[in-house]
Amino acid sequence: MIEEMLPTYQITSEMNRLPKKAWLLRILKPSWVWMIATALFYFVRPDFYSLKIPWWILSFLLFTLIMMSRLLSSYQTRYKLNKTCVQFKTGGFNTRFFLSKRKKISELQLTRHIVQQKLGLTSIVISNRAKPVMHTRVNHLPIEWCKAFDRWYMLKE
Questions:
Q1: Residue 14 forms beta bridges with which residues?
Q2: Is there a single domain that holds both residue 63 and residue 102?
Q3: For an engineered disulfide with 107, which of 111, 127, 136, 144 has Cβ 3.0 to 4.6 Å away?
Q4: pTM for this one?
């Protein structure tokens, strides 16, 4: 459907997946939402529709939901670089598709924290010309691909 709407864009259905190291990094990241919610469940003890549900069951359900979202996000995140376009597919329970030509990208930023450096990964932020400016962030991409993407972006005319 996107190809029919945007015939000048080259869209590839075969996209690269994140490496297994990225999956591990996403799973091991602490969830502040879960920790704060667990503390609230413990002290407030919510009563849903007069059901007496122990606080730890609510905490476990929230933890399971967060982990499922992270696993789906790692599984569904894809990336591809063509001659004229870059495309990303991201999301957990829903997916977002980002497609842009080189000339529409106004800024490219590569960032790495110490764990990403050890695992050979990096995060990328793309600023796209639009009103308002659109910023797209994709975490835990392989550094080799990001360097190739940076060289591709520098060929900008």
A1: none
A2: no
A3: 127
A4: 0.81
